[in-house]
Design brief:
Nucleotidyltransferase, domain 5; single chain
């Protein structure tokens, strides 16, 4: 069964320059395998895009400890989805080191599996409510 992965990132109280956090939720069918949130960091090198990519990297790190499995990775970030599909280039921005790390994971996982494992799908914010809530709730608990 194909995994469904939901990722959302947040940067508060200002974007860029606030505290970046992400939410990550992984399902296999109706079974929730993981619900995770974390603070990425605080400061002028943080942004929503950094947080989105940090959430994707957290998924790849989780997947490192699993058997290779196909997944549909869903996010309401057009930047993340279109860049990971190869439709948009990554040229500059605070997120660039995170993008490069995510691409390294993507390439390594594809090579290890010997096939394409991941599809990237943009979804509206309303369909990403669980990851969004996780990314926001962790900020409330760290103030």
């Amino acid at each position: 069964m194909v995994l469904e992965v939901y990722i959302d990132g947040n940067c508060e109280p200002t974007n860029p320059g606030g505290t970046a956090s992400y939410g990550l939720v992984i399902y296999r069918g109706k079974a929730r395998l993981l619900a995770k949130s974390a603070i990425v960091d605080t400061g002028d090198k943080m942004s929503n895009n950094v947080a989105e990519y940090a959430g994707l990297i957290a998924f790849f790190e989780w997947a490192d400890n699993q058997l290779p499995e196909e997944a549909v990775i869903k996010s309401d970030s057009q930047l993340l989805i279109n860049q990971m599909r190869g439709e948009w280039q990554a040229r500059q921005g605070l997120y660039l080191p995170y993008y490069r790390k995510a691409m390294t994971y993507l390439i390594n996982h594809t090579q290890l599996a010997g096939r394409k494992l991941y599809q990237f799908k943009w979804i509206p914010r309303e369909e990403n409510w669980e990851a969004d809530r996780l990314s926001r709730d962790i900020l409330l608990h760290t103030e």
